[in-house]
């Protein structure tokens, strides 16, 4: 009886809120309308507001919602295993299993226990029956593997500058039709590997690799519905420098970082497909067609990254024609593709 009455009251509040949303849909000014457990506002405004006020946000929506985001406030009892506390001004949450809740066909069900997110460490919630959206509300995060060179950072332009300055071998980036450097530099494979390892010791490598435009901004958004890990062919010899670079430019975004140790002077290498399978990766973002085909052939979706259509080595008909390989030309296209995979 109590649940039936609570459900009736909930729908009354929901209809009131929805009517206000419709009346204000023509404006883009941030606003807030709160009714016993609901808050509606513009996304950017709300994010700042969450950090200033001590209320509970029940997870992150599994759907991409633009300006007018509908969120459910807490009127529930504390569930100890579900809290994720944000203690600092940057809003970084300590790792705890998230609960994704989405508005799906306006269906609501009661559940005795639902996880909550304590936004600023000072909020509290009262005991009561929690509400949960039904159907596809508890979606698992996508597991996504991300390459480093030419996907996160412009490795090749820094290397090419080093080769020009130290070996008087001038090449345009448009000449790199394949990511096997000995074919471009007209030397043996062994000599090419030696030159690359010399590059690793220089300022060209340590300070000259710049992030790919848009990558950090998009990855922050993707981290709300993706588990992100780095899978790179880089060598073990530059592991420490790589970890430092990732932490500097992409802090806190990746759960794991794996090195394939390809083209190394010593040590065993590991195929990217094997690393991705061990992670349970559903998607790989990579610029190399060979790795794209290798992973697609074992059932992993691949976003073949060709930044602004400027990577000659990424233009492979065999890779592009594979049903699990999709070409992308910037990080906005990466976001669009992953959102389409995440939303049922």
Automatic annotation (TrEMBL):
Pfam families the UniProt entry points to: NT5C (PF06941)
PANTHER family linked to this entry: NUCLEOTIDASE YQFW-RELATED
GO biological process, any: deoxyribonucleotide catabolic process
UniProt superkingdom: Eukaryota
Catalytic machinery residues: 147, 149
Molecular function as annotated in GO: 5'-nucleotidase activity
Species: Elaeis guineensis var. tenera (Oil palm)
Protein name: Uncharacterized protein LOC105041973 isoform X1
Lineage per the UniProt record: Eukaryota, Viridiplantae, Streptophyta, Embryophyta, Tracheophyta
InterPro entries membership: 5'(3')-deoxyribonucleotidase (IPR010708), 5_3-deoxyribonucleotidase-like (IPR052419), HAD-like_sf (IPR036412), HAD_sf (IPR023214)
